[in-house]
Amino acid sequence: MDRAEIVRLDKRRVWHPYTAMDAWASVDPIVVARAEGPFLWDENGARFIDGNSSWWTSALGHRHPRVVAAINRQLETLDHCALGGIAHEQSARLAEELIAVAPAGMSRVFYTDNGSTAIEAAVKMSIQLFAQNGKPRKSRFVALDGAFHGDSIGAASLGGVEIFRRPFASVLFECVHAPFPDDYQAAFDAMKELITRKHDTIAAVVVEPIVQGAAGMRIYDARYLTELVAVARAHDVLVIFDEVFAGYGRTGPMWACDHAGVSPDLMCIGKVFAGGALPMAAVLATERVFDAFRGDASRAFYYGHTFCGHPLGAAIAREVLAIFKDEQILSQVARKERLIKQAFERIAQIPGVARVRSIGMIGAADLGSAGYEGGLGWRVYEEAKKRGAYLRPLGDTVYVCPPLVTEDSVLIELLQILEDSIRAVT
Ligand SMILES: Cc1ncc(COP(=O)(O)O)c(C=O)c1O
Known about the structure:
The chain is α/β, with parallel strands linked by helices and 426 residues long. It has helices at 3-13, 21-24, 53-56, 65-75, 89-101, 115-131, 153-158, 162-165, 184-198, 222-234, 287-291, 311-326, 329-347, 376-387, 408-425, and strands at residues 32-36, 39-42, 47-50, 106-112, 140-144, 175-178, 202-207, 211-212, 218-219, 238-242, 266-269, 281-286, 355-359, 362-366, 389-390, 397-400.
């Protein structure tokens, strides 16, 4: 099918996520035909560097040969089967291998099928844990201003980005949003006060450790996490770390919470988990959480998803962990982090750039103050597209978040395209 025909069919039938569809009608989109490593190729042969790892998933690049081989191998024997009342090798071995690299104290794996459902599961586990263990009033949640934890109703209730909440405000459950730790001490003091005063009604605190992704790549001090965990534990408030975006080396270490050397009670992972090739996610839990569901059937966690723990995804997820180890992916990040940092220090000098920041394989710059609804980032997106990079912005925030395996020369090219595109716009 030729490019024009694909676009015609798309515009006739496809309802795109996060998209004003009237405006989409006049967009000439990138029509991706093929992807490999850090590159996307358009139907007309144009090459684009995948500047955001396809929504933060393809940390190992697209179609990593070992991931492709793992899918093919698994397809030879078992494509999918339910996890209800059935065990299978891939999900069993994956759980064991995952716990081996998880933060200290994690001991159980509950599979779901995307980041939002991992968050839903963690929320429901927290509520049920207290409900059936003598503290039914502990059913409220605390999250951070600007948080993004997904789009299902539960996950959106925790979210703090106004545009994602607005239409659903009437049905979202109550969640207290604590100040984002721009100033870590002041924010922690506010959080401490909140937990101390309301702990008898709070089930859990949910945070994206170290960096809030969708809020605009906002980075905060690891000390906030250390102190948060201590005060939550002291008041029997569960800590849920959402590592859906920041996990798997994106910020440097395997898990963003490793910056602080702390572990949560529940940890949600997704995106890179199944190599960016299939939707797959999980909640990791401590033994204490798991124990709270022991007993007769009325105490079980009645929750699940059709594709949870599916063998194809699990086979890929195991291969991803093996590749991280064999190819020493995390040590590659440490080296490339410097290139990103230096580029953003240069970008900070461009008139019109308000603020820059970087950590691990993330670099971001604010071009205006309109936040997620700003249009400047989209102008940079268009400029970058002309120059061969896919750089979807977060409103007025432009950022890079490329595959961790991006070669230095390609990374330098990507950073140069971003810099040139910003200059063209500002
Ligand atoms: C931190 C975080 N949590 C949860 C989610 C939701 O994941 P999914 O889109 O797979 O439902 C996202 C998605 O971007 C995310 O960034």
